[in-house]
Amino acid sequence: xxxxxxxxxxxxxxxxxxxxxxxxxxxxxxxxxxxxxxxxxxxxxxxxxxxxxxxxxxxxxxxxxxxxxxxxxxxxxxxxxxxxxxxxxxxxxxxxxxxxxxxxxxxxxxxxxxxxxxxxxxxxxxxxxxxxxxxxxxxxxxxxxxxxxxxxxxxxxxxxxxxxxxxxxxxxxx
Amino acid sequence: xxxxxxxxxxxxxxxxxxxxxxxxxxxxxxxxxxxxxxxxxxxxxxxxxxxxxxxxxxxxxxxxxxxxxxxxxxxxxxxxxxxxxxxxxxxxxxxxxxxxxxxxxxxxxxxxxxxxxxxxxxxxxxxxxxxxxxxxxxxxxxxxxxxxxxxxxxxxxxxxxxxxxxxxxxxxxxxxxxxxxxxxxxxxxxxxxxxxxxxxxxxxxxxxxxxxxxxxxxxxxxxxxxxxxxxxxxxxxxxxxxxxxxxxxxxxxxxxxxxxxxxxxxxxxxxxxxxxxxxxxxxxxxxxxxxxxxxxxxxxxxxxxxxxxxxxxxxxxxxxxxxxxxxxxxxxxxxxxxxxxxxxxxxxxxxxxxxxxxxxxxxxxxxxxxxxxxxxxxxxxxxxxxxxxxxxxxxxxxxxxxxxxxxxxxxxxxxxxxxxxxxxxxxxxxxxxxxxxxxxxxxxxxxxxxxxxxxxxxxxxxxxxxxxxxxxxxxxxxxxxxxxxxxxxxxxxxxxxxxxxxxxxxxxxxxxxxxxxxxxxxxxxxxxxxxxxxxxxxxxxxxxx
Lengths: 174, 545
What we know:
Shape of chain B: elongated
Radius of gyration of chain B: 35 Å
Number of helices of chain B: 12
Strand content of chain B: 35-45%
Helix content of chain B: 10-25%
Oligomer: heterodimer
Distance between the termini of chain A: 51 Å
Strand content of chain A: 15-25%
Structural class of chain B: alpha+beta
Distance between the termini of chain B: 27 Å
Strand order of the largest sheet of chain A: 4-3-2-1-5-6
């Protein structure tokens, strides 16, 4: 039972804490000094006849009336600027900075209740719930999604808030 | 069903189902919070004209950094010492200029035309919710509980060999076996009413060792009592069984002048219990029950669902702690000298007394003792009956329970008509699984009258019994025989106090007075935890002081 619990907690921690895209996010203190666009994850349906959803994640370059431009990283898409039609975008997550999460606290705090003896039966679930909720809250505070912002409202967070500069093509940008 | 312990709450015993539920709920909550909550409003303050932000920065105590997005895609980042010459149309300041791919083109003192700027940006510091902050209060609570446990480990680490029906959890434990048998020579058999009936060809029982104990089991039998559809099977303290088809609820129940009737009408864990006397742990209390006048032609009995509080658990662990590093010497003596255990057990027990049942005799105007009940154990509820002498009266039938304050929890009381005496079918397990696997050796040990099945901490056994007639309704009881050896805890060694052990054994009356203050210190904490941990239970117990 104990093993199962530890594995479950480790998995939970891994799922929430091990997201590889964190490494691309700025620290909170660097938010104002950042010279690039915010980090974004975009889910796009490229083929209307298919339910296949493709994810792009990387720097938000610009937003214009019809398209959203992203330089994707860590995906099967080359690290070049890609224009995504707004009409194909299913959803997105915009990250302002690395979240102030401490996912380690979920297994550590819950595991610590082993020292509580009989009280463990109450304190273990309590710790699991509180740490999960607080870390979930901290994670959520670092980003916005389609329910918070519409696509046009993403423009201020792009590298070029007023769109691709005149004279540049997306091939020039990287 | 005697048990001195509460090890169902030790770390090994977090109920699997409950824990899975908690983890699932946590993930769901996290997921919901993650997906559905409104995200933060993090604005980007961008201005098309310098005039739009100059006024704002003039009144600010500290001028923020300035970013200027130039028309060709370049970006100029200026630290807070920037200056704007609106007449000449230039901006100057110390900072960095980046090209459209954000490679640094120039650093140091920079000057550029306001006409080249597409948009200005001036942001406030970002302050995201800190996942650590909320953890500090939690950490303080955790450490406090840990310290409390270190200070008083007996309050936190208990023990109990427990039996469950297949769908049971810790709060539906159906039995606690032979837990007064803390040494080989004290082995005895114990019968628990599983409060369950079945009409099937087999029945499964889960037996767990959730404690720091070694359990030695001589027998675990299912006792099946054939009854008709409208009957229950009731058991006396002497293991006599009766079928019963009628039970009458009390019309009133008073303890210390308080109406406690609601706690006793249903077997629902909404229990009556009182706090121990702060001056003397041996203080007694009375609970008076009244039943509608009956003129039963058949035998009748008081039915009581009861269990103990954690008081006896406290005493037995205190005794072991007082023994300290001489615990093995004392237990060796117990094996050699029977009267030692009698002193240890009966000294206190005689002071605490049993749950005595009296019947009011209207003719002689006196309470007449009908019998007494006693089962140690705070987890599983016992259902037993005390036969009452026949009485024909037009007055309400009055029954008095005399019991030690703070020692007993009463869940249900009724007057039962006893139909006839019945004999149980005593069934041996047909299948035995140990820790999930069929275990023929363990089964052989359990069935061999000369051997013991050994169960170590963390072990669990699934015992299946074949019932002879699947069309017959059987009321089920569990017979378990054996003994167990409590493991000494490191935490207890520091409490060695042979003088106190001597007082407990030889002067229990004095001990119960002097120990009252220490017991009261954590009595409420223990009870609170006990009830607050009833996550899956149906109701919270009432509390009557």
